[in-house]
Specification:
The complex is a heterodimer. Chain A is built from twelve helices and nine strands. Chain A is α/β, with parallel strands linked by helices. Chain A has one domain: Aldolase class I (TIM Barrel). Chain A has a nine-stranded parallel β-sheet with strand order 5-4-3-2-1-9-8-7-6. In chain A, strand 1, helix 2 and strand 2 form a beta-alpha-beta unit. Chain B is an alpha/beta fold. In chain B, helix 2 packs across helix 4, helix 4 packs parallel to helix 5 and helix 10 crosses helix 11. Chain B starts with 9 loop residues before the first strand and ends in a 6-residue tail after the last helix. The interface between A and B is large, with 43 and 40 residues.
Chain lengths: ~270, ~400
């Protein structure tokens, strides 16, 4: 089956360009605190203005994540969430929502599930793209090839430490967009983003026409607006997870989350 | 077999660099710096100087007469890594890496530690060279290894408790990697075993292979021939890799790695990664791994905190697949027997890690023709474990005292 997730992501960025808007990519951890919440929340995020939904697969050893996402991952794992259950949940989410979905998962869960089986099943439930934070260019060839054969976008990362050679090589294989890490560090909201982010994105631009999304550290609308001056989209994850974690499981602050997402999106328009 | 890893850091399908993009350029720079240092006679002389004058190398290869007699008609030699400064083989590696950190102009070193031996060895060389030093240690391990926490603090290191995940070595490693990703410009990460992303497994192996190189010469002097067996414990696998590596091309030398079977393989409470694990990715490399079918890492168990790790060095995985080395496992109980027998026959109290290698000897010797030569690596001394063994002995109502 060929799903053309890459094309659906391209269409989002084309539409954004026409409207002179910047994109909002919202990240939530699947199964935080249980999968029912994720299934309800994803469509609400889309309604509130998210252009792409990024869904995290929990992992016991998330070494690229800061305390907020680590805690979300632990909550999900305590509830028995697995990569297979996340894929099953996607079916429900897809029934209520049209915006592209990308899965963010560390490599070991994919590897144990079976790379080709995982890609087939992800395709089946209309996942559009993949982010694998511990799979750099050098190790990702097989997964990239297999994803591409099925029309799933493999979205690479670039970091402020990436050399020009690596930026050029990454730009060559990028599908959908490039995820640019704003700071050298792990995920998590920060009060200030480094000034050098503008320079870093400028460098990447010299090597590619692909859309650039900036993530890691974006904590609110004002920051989103600032970094969006140099990017095509902004990824917000820990800040959303923080709001969600403040409620109690019986009464989750979903309205607060959607209000926050609306504010983020407004900051990216006009 | 000596030409590995390949350019991308692979030993067959194992190894590699499964890390966030932020670390790729620093890893490439580290590899280049290491390759240059290795070719630089000044660096090699300096390393040699400190190994001799500070660490106390070469360590003896001691013929264990009473242990040999006790076990049968074999000739058992002990490679005395327990006699190194700080009491274990760990310093062979931390010394090499700290010299590299200085060469690269880094002002701060960080490390992960489980039992605290690698933490102490890192804090020691950091103190010697006046570098800022932060050691990540799981809260659970800090409780179990209080004395080592105090030792590290005495040496001026900042011990940072890790409260996430299972609060043990694997989580301390995650946290050290997160620190490195954040502070990579001025910070050098000293990994303690032959694990992690390329070039670490290669580099740590090279620094530790001083063990095997010395054994090669020493056994020639003592016996006029190479040994029949090399035996070493395997957690991450650095003392074993250091002992094995200079003998990889000598097919007559059998290589045996001894893993921790904990309370028994069947109980699920063990650390026998090579014997019982599956292929997978943890902490930057592909190797054998203790994880469930969903890819979540399963905590390891062993009476020895230094073997309590759900991963293992990728080169060991390769040696297993190639059939060049054999990996076995012994339980906590058998390791304790090894601990006691070495103390009683030779007056040497080994670390509980090394006691696993000793504990395997009766089983190995049982099937051997006479006069076989066996070299066992005593990777560390057991002072740190006396308290644990005393508690276990009391619990088992053993009449040693």
């Amino acid at each position: 089956m060929f799903s053309n997730g890459e094309k659906r992501i391209d269409e989002v960025f084309a539409r954004l360009r026409n409207r002179r808007e910047k994109g909002l990519i919202t990240y939530i951890m699947a199964g935080d605190p249980e999968l029912g919440t994720t299934e309800r929340l994803a469509p609400l995020l889309a309604e509130a203005g998210a252009d792409i939904i990024e869904i995290g697969v929990p992992f016991s050893d998330p070494l690229a994540d800061g305390p907020v996402i680590q805690a979300a991952s632990e909550r999900a794992l305590r509830n028995g969430v697995t990569i297979g259950k996340v894929l099953a949940s996607m079916q429900t989410i897809r029934a209520h929502m049209q915006v592209p979905v990308i899965l963010m998962t560390y490599y070991n869960p994919i590897y144990q599930y079976g790379i080709e089986r995982f890609l087939d099943d992800a395709n089946e439930v209309e996942v559009d793209g993949l982010l694998v934070p511990d799979l750099p260019l050098e190790e990702s060839e097989f997964l990239r090839q297999q994803a591409s054969n099925r029309g799933l976008a493999f979205i690479p990362f670039l970091a402020p430490t990436s050399s020009p050679t690596r930026i050029a090589a990454t730009a060559m294989v990028a599908q959908g967009f490039i995820y640019c890490i704003s700071v050298t560090g792990v995920t998590g909201p920060r009060d200030h983003l480094p000034i050098s982010t503008a320079g870093f994105l400028g460098t990447v631009r010299r090597y590619t026409n692909k859309p650039l999304a900036v993530g890691f550290g974006v904590s609110g609308p004002e920051q989103a607006r600032m970094v969006s001056a140099y990017a095509d989209a902004v990824v917000v994850g820990s800040a959303i997870t923080n709001i969600l974690s403040r409620g109690n499981p019986s009464k989750l602050p979903l309205a607060q989350v959607t209000t926050f997402v609306r504010m983020l999106k407004e900051a990216l328009m006009a | 077999m000596n030409g590995l890893p390949d350019e991308q850091g692979h030993f067959g399908v194992f190894g590699g660099r499964y890390v966030p993009e932020t670390l790729m350029t620093p890893l490439l720079e580290l590899e280049e710096a290491y390759r240059e240092a290795k070719r630089d006679p000044v660096f090699c002389r300096e390393l040699q100087y400190y190994l001799t004058q500070y660490v106390g190398r070469p360590t003896p290869l001691y013929f264990a007469r009473r242990l040999s007699e006790r076990l049968g008609e074999v000739r058992i030699y002990l490679k005395r890594e327990d006699l190194n400064h700080t009491g274990a083989h760990k310093i062979n590696n931390t010394l090499g890496q700290v010299l590299l950190a200085l060469r690269m102009g880094k002002s701060r070193v960080i490390a992960e530690t489980g039992a605290g031996q690698h933490g102490v060895a890192t804090a020691t060389v950091a103190a010697m060279f006046g570098l800022q030093c932060d050691i990540y240690m799981g809260e659970e391990d800090m409780k179990r290894q209080e004395i080592n926490v105090f030792r590290m603090r005495l040496l001026g290191a900042n011990v940072r408790p890790v409260a996430c995940g299972s609060r043990t070595l694997k989580d301390a490693t995650n946290e050290a990697i997160r620190d490195w990703v954040t502070n990579v410009k001025h910070t050098y990460y000293i990994i303690g075993s032959v694990v992690g992303p390329h070039p670490y497994p290669m580099m740590v192996r090279d620094f530790q292979s001083v063990i095997g190189k010395e054994v090669r010469e020493q056994i020639q002097d003592a016996e006029g021939r190479l040994p029949h067996y090399l035996v070493a414990c395997v957690g991450g696998g650095s003392n074993a890799m250091g002992l094995f590596y200079p003998f990889l091309e000598d097919d007559s030398v059998n290589l045996i790695g001894v893993e921790a079977a904990g309370q028994g393989i069947d109980t699920g409470k063990h650390a026998a990664t090579l014997s019982e694990g599956r292929y997978g990715v943890l902490h930057g490399s592909m190797s054998y791994l203790l994880c469930d079918e969903h890819g979540q890492i399963v905590p390891a168990h062993s009476v020895s905190a230094g073997l309590d790790y759900p991963g293992v060095g990728p080169e060991h995985a390769y040696l297993k697949e190639e059939g060049r080395a054999t990996y076995v496992s012994v339980t906590d109980q058998t390791a304790l027997e090894g601990f006691h027998i070495l103390a009683e026959t030779e007056g040497i109290i080994p670390a509980l890690e090394s006691a696993h290698a000793v504990g395997y000897l009766p089983a190995l010797v049982a099937g051997l023709p006479r006069d076989r030569i066996i070299v066992v690596c005593i990777s560390g001394r057991g002072d740190k474990d006396v308290h644990t063994v005393s508690n276990l002995t009391r619990m088992a109502n053993h009449n040693v005292f």
